[in-house]
Design goal:
The chain has 65 residues and is mainly alpha-helical. It is 80% helix and 0% strand. It has a domain of 44 residues.
Length: 65
């Protein structure tokens, strides 16, 4: 089976290109943000990213008030 990630990258780049060309700079960043959010959601669903561990490491850096 051939790797899927180059095809996914091509599709995402094409979507960003169309958003930038037809929707302007704001649409480009909206598509970029939603794509990154979807990527993170996919990693969580696949079990490759643990949000509990991520947020606990962020909270460890804060001091209690």
């Amino acid at each position: 089976m051939r790797p899927l990630w180059p095809l996914v990258g091509l599709a995402f780049g094409t979507a960003l290109g169309f958003a930038g060309a037809f929707g302007g700079f704001g649409a480009f960043f909206i598509v970029l943000f939603l794509g990154a959010l979807g990527f993170l959601a996919g990693r969580v669903i696949e079990g490759e990213l643990d949000l509990g561990q991520l947020f606990s490491s962020i909270n460890q850096g804060r001091r209690p008030r």
